[in-house]
Each structure stands twice: as structure tokens, then as C-alpha cells.
Amino acid sequence: MTPRFGSVRRLCRRLQGIVVTAIKLAVCLGIPSSTTATPAQDIAWPLPIAAQVSERSGGIVLDKPLVDLLADEFDHGKAHPPTVEWVDPQPLEEPLPLSQPLPTYTTADVWTRDRFEVGYERGFFIRPREGEDSPFKLLINFQDQFRYTGFVPAQETWTDSAGVVRLISERNGFDIIRGRVIFSGTAVDPDLSYYLNLDYGTTGDDRVTVLLGWMSYRFSRSFELFWGKGKVPGGREWLMTSMFSHAPDRTMATTFFRPSITTGVWARGKPTDELFYQAIIGNGFNTSAAGFRDLDTNLLYSGNLGWEPWGEFGGLYSDLPFRDLPAVRFGTSLTQSRQSGRQFDASAAEQTFIRLSDGTDLTQPDALFPGVTVTDYSVSLATLDAGWKHRGRSLNAEYFLRWLYDFRGTGPISSADRSLFDHGFYVQGGTFFVPRRWEWIARTSQVFGERGNGAEYAAGVNWFPKGTESWRVGADVTYLNRSPASQLRTGYEAGATGTMFRVQVQMMF
Question: Does 251 share its domain with 370?
Fold first, then answer.
């Protein structure tokens, strides 16, 4: 062949990919058979092997390769239109030899002829249709909290227990406080569940992290066993999602006293309709950001017990359903852990530090004793909580008691200084002045301790545009007086006194 024709063939080979892609698009749009119409969901994808398709799998069949057809057009100055016919898919009675192209699959094959259904019901789901015997289910949820925070400090600095003078930050800006993509469902066995919570935000280092992740096996209603990464059940407001709090975020007292997230094994269940529990053995009080080299050999023990004598109370603090009958709940939790070494990355999602009641980091040099850095200590936390909801009104409270003891450090510690006791509480309530739409809220929380006291007072409003918890706009004004709590997402800063303004839009679906 002359060079001219060789160049034409090379050009045609480049065009082949484009033409085959066009044929694929035509098939996607539904090219009819020469005899009968073929439903779009049963159309097979053509194989890109010289635009020819195995007759066994169905598709478009050309009588010769496109390269030769197009080259003939240029070589001989006339067109040779291909013969095009539709080949209906045929079942594969035996495997194809490896020398032949593998067949492609129709959408009906992928979904195993309508065994599964896709839709939305409190999340996007893929699940077996009714009557199908399959353990595999997937539910996808999304959560987002977008917040404006303004803080006007009443003073520029504060002095901690170690004598260090620290600046108090002024704030005026926007943040994605919490963004979450959550995957959950069952697999392999109907009683074997999985849960994966991917977290992102702009208050820390902007990483996408695995906030929570576990698998569980349900033996009965009264006993389900979990293993993975979960919350330490050291208080009701902490166990509840932040999406359900009265104000834009959890209280100052909860932020100060609560534990964080750990890896471990735990059990959960409902022995009766009114009683439920959760108990965990984990790596530590605040080990969410810890690697295995950071961990000691001490384990954490924590449990939570709740009682709802008048029926299900629900997770939301507000009485959004506008209950005709009152609902109440009572609960308690106990947590004990021995801690060693430094505390971990404060910028990690939902991480907190154990602090003295004036806001000083416990493991900071000179925090408790001059010339001594605390390296080992024990922490015990107990809480009592109660809640009430009726006809759009709600009231919730929790009391915290914390003991820090058995200190060891880089220097001598007298026996008289080997324990500290701190306590505190929050009370928060709300009332709907437009049922299921507009709610007034107010709250206070207090912390009392040997190194100082702190308090917050807040009032605000919530708007539920659709009358459900899936979309809420909230705003509050909070006055802080010597906050002992510090956490990036809640907006509290250790030692701060001043006024905080927050406006938040949150969605969950």
C-alpha cells in the first residue's frame, strides 16, 4: 500500500474509538431492533473490538471492522455502508474461551432481575425487595452544620493555674462545624450490622476522618455486641447527636466534663420497653486521636443506663412532635479510666482535654504543682440526667461529678494533693410558640471546682422550616463567665469571658 493509504488507515484507526463511543451512546439511548423494540434496560453494551459484538451477548454487529470500512472509503473513493442488525441477547450455556472477548452485562443482570430496590426512607437506601432473601442492605445519610460565630471578649487575657498569661481570641466568621457522610446497613447475616461515619469540617485541619466506625451482632433485643470505634457513654448530652441539642451546640458543662471517642468493645440493649443500657471497655477517656504507640496498657470502663417509664422519649431535646401525652426519662452514667502520658491532638474531631476547673490543661507543666508535670492520673465521672416533654414544651437537665486522683508526675506530690473534685450541671428548656415551626430556647450551665468556677447563660430561637428535625435554623446569644471548657467545634475557649453570637443552618437526611 502506498504511504498515502497507510496514513489514511492510521487516521481511521484514531477515528475508530470516536465512532465506537458514538455507537455506545446510541445504544444507551435505545436503538430499536429491526424486528421488535428492545427495552432500554435490556440493551447490552457493545464491545469495542473493531466495533463487533459477540452474538452471544447481544448488541450491534457490523459485517466488517470499521477501520477497513472507513479506509475503503478513502482508498477507493466510494462508500461501503456496513450491514447493521440487532442481535438479541442469548444465554451463555458454557463459558467463552479466553481467546474470545468477555460478554458484558445488562442492567437487569446487575440488579439480578429486580431483587433489590433503591429509594429514600430516612436516608438513601439499597435493599432487597419484600420477599427476597438477602442480608445485604445499605443506607446513606448526610449531615451538615454551617455556623456563623461571633465572640466579643470582655478581657484580652487570662492567667491559668501554671501562671501562664494567655490571649483570649475574638471571633467573627463562618465555619462548617460538622459535615458527615454516614454509611450503615447489614451484610452477610441479617443480624450483622455495620456503621461508618466520615467526618469533615473547617474548624480544625480540614481532614476527612473516620469519626465512628463499627460492626455489631444482634443476639436479641436485650443484647447487641459492638466492636470498633465509638463514643464513651459518659453522659446523656454527649451520647446524643449534636444535631438534637436545644442550642446550636452542646453546653459548656458537657464540653468540660465529657469523655471523647475510643476504640473498644461494647454492648447495648433494651431488657424491657422502658429500660436500656450501654457498656463499653475501651482504650481510654480521650483516645480518638491516639495511635497505638501513644496508648498505655490501661483500659477504660464506662456504662450508661436510661429509663423511660411513660413511653419512648426520643433523642431530640425539643418536643417537635407536640406530644399530647407527657414523656419523661431518667438516666445515669459511670466512667472510670487510668490515663498515662500527654493528652492528644486538640484539633481532632470531637477531641477534648481533661482540664482543671479554671480551664488549665491537666498535663501542662506546673498545672497542679510547681515544678511538676502530671504524667499519670485516674479519672472517675458520674452523671445523673432527667428530661420532660409535653405539647411543645421541654425541660432537660444533667448533673456531673468528677474525681481526678492518684496523680504521678515528674516530681514529688504530697498525699494531701492527690485528688481533685469538680462538679457542675446544665438546665435547658424550650417552648414552641408556633407548633412544629418556631421555638424559644434558654439554658444555663455551671462548673464548680477547687481551681475556679465557670458559667454560661444563653437564649435563642429555633426555626424548623418543614416541621421536622431534618432542617433547622437556630440562633442564640450566650454570655460566658470564665469558661473552663475549650473545644473547637462547640466554640468555647478556656478562660474566656464575653458574649458569643451564633447563627446556624443544619440539615440531616
Answer: yes
Question: DSSP secondary structure string, 364-398?
Answer: STTSSBTTB-EEEEEEEEEEEEEEEEETTEEEEEE
What is the DSSP code (8-state) at residue 416? G
Whether the per-residue pLDDT at 11 is higher than 60: the answer is no
Same domain, residue pair 72 and 156: no
Choose one of 94, 129, 164: the last residue of a domain. Answer: 94
CA distances 231 to 11, 222, 228, 381, Å, are: 62, 20, 10, 15
Nearest to 302 by CA among 255, 346, 260: 260
DSSP 487: B
Provide the domain limits for residue 75: 3-94
pLDDT(112) > 90: no
Q: Tell me, yes or no, whether 276 lies in a domain.
A: yes
> How far, in Å, CA of 473 to CA of 470, rounded?
10
Give the Cα separation of 362 and 420 in Å (integer): 11
Model pLDDT for residues 372-390, shown as the tens digit of each residue: 999 999 999 999 999 999 9
Q: What angle do CA 236, 240, 242 make, to 5 degrees?
A: 125
* 107 part of a folded domain: no
Please give the single-letter amino acid code of residue 114.
D
